[in-house]
Write a structure and sequence with these properties.
The chain has a single domain, classed as Rhopdopsin 7-helix transmembrane proteins (Up-down Bundle), CATH 1.20.1070.10. The protein starts with a helix and ends with a helix. The protein is mainly alpha-helical. The relative contact order is 0.12. The protein is built from twelve helices and two strands. The chain is globular and about 80 Å long. It has a two-stranded antiparallel ribbon. β1 (163-169) and β2 form a beta hairpin.
Length: 340
């Protein structure tokens, strides 16, 4: 776990350099490539269904891993690295970069809201036993995830019409420039407020609320069960139900804590420019760096959800080690047979 934590800090440092435009010539994107590969491995491992997780939880984790891969593909690779390393490529033609923007917004929104749906699922599983049988099922998870994805994609399609060409060269529109009406038209202003409230203000508030309710419920339930256990079987008796809830809380807080911490700077920046009325394009150097660090952290949050969750699962770590060692066992079968 210490090594994994150091790798995460390394990725955060390098991502910060990308977004603040320092040492860009030294960045190869390898760190984000590792996250992409891990999410791909996570999808393979989770799809086997041998990690000791329920089918419902596995469905949510698969969806989050897929969304994280899309965030890395569209935002980090296509939108950031390709625009820097391959300027004036076809990716900067206005229709193409508009589509890329729509895709990266949709991927980020899905990553965030899949985390919220997973948090709601864990809340129901821990606190609402009567609703658990109907809500915490694989079929319901598929319906919720599909509906969430479709609605978010429909919302983000609107962003395609936000841009106009920055230049027109040989009748070819280049670059994506915000239309002037985007900042003055009441419809666009209302849409911008709706988008800001939908992501990340509502998710941020929901996670804080659901976690507080979950902790309150577990503390009350554990106190009651502990008293009953002490009266019936003595203080040293174990409680499988409370142990299961304890593990669920660890898994829940791992995901939601990652979201709360890494989105904190971005939420502060949104509240600052919404309340002060300052256009982010007119930021000073210090405010600009603050904004870009917030963007870096939120995208890191979108890329590491499944990574952090998976590292808390012993069976998942065992499967991951087997998959990592598998190429070596195939390439060097003779040494393995000799050892046996």
């Amino acid at each position: 776990m210490n090594r994994a934590s150091s790798d995460i800090l390394k990725i955060m440092f390098i991502g910060s350099a990308i977004y603040t435009e320092f040492n860009l010539d030294l960045i190869s994107g390898k760190e984000f490539e590792y996250l992409f590969q891990f999410n791909l491995l996570a999808i393979v491992i989770l799809s086997q269904g041998k990690c000791g997780l329920s089918s419902c939880t596995t469905c949510y984790l698969l969806a989050m891993a897929a969304a994280d891969m899309l965030v890395i593909s569209f935002d980090i690779i296509l939108f950031r690295l390709c625009f820097y390393y391959f300027p004036r490529s076809f990716l900067e033609i206005t229709p193409v970069c508009s589509i890329i923007t729509v895709l990266l917004y949709a991927a980020t929104d899905c990553s965030v809201w899949f985390t919220i749906t997973f948090t709601c699922d864990r809340f129901v599983a821990v606190c609402c036993q009567k609703l658990k049988q109907k809500y915490c099922t694989e079929k319901m998870a598929v319906v919720i995830l599909s509906t969430t994805c479709i609605l978010l994609c429909l919302k983000d399609i609107t962003l395609y019409f936000r841009f106009e060409p920055g230049e027109i060269i040989d009748n070819v529109p280049w670059f994506c420039k915000d239309k002037r009406s985007y900042y003055t038209d009441p419809g666009w202003i209302g849409f911008n407020w709706f988008e800001t409230i939908l992501t990340p203000l509502i998710p941020y508030g929901l996670i804080l609320l659901l976690n507080a309710l979950t902790v309150r419920h577990v503390l009350v339930a554990s106190r009651v069960r502990k008293e009953l256990k002490c009266q019936s079987k003595g203080e040293n008796s174990s409680d499988p139900e409370m142990e299961s809830r304890r593990k669920s809380l660890i898994l829940l807080f791992t995901m939601s804590g990652n979201f709360i911490i890494l989105w904190f700077v971005y939420v502060l920046n949104i509240l600052y420019y919404k309340i002060s009325g300052i256009n982010p394009k007119n930021y000073s150097n210090s405010l600009y760096m603050f904004e870009q660090v917030g963007v870096m952290l939120l995208e890191l949050s979108c890329c590491t959800n499944t990574f952090i969750y998976g590292m808390t699962q012993s069976k998942f770590r065992q499967k991951l080690k087997i998959m990592i060692k598998y190429p070596a066992t195939v390439m060097f079968p003779i040494s393995n047979t000799q050892n046996n």
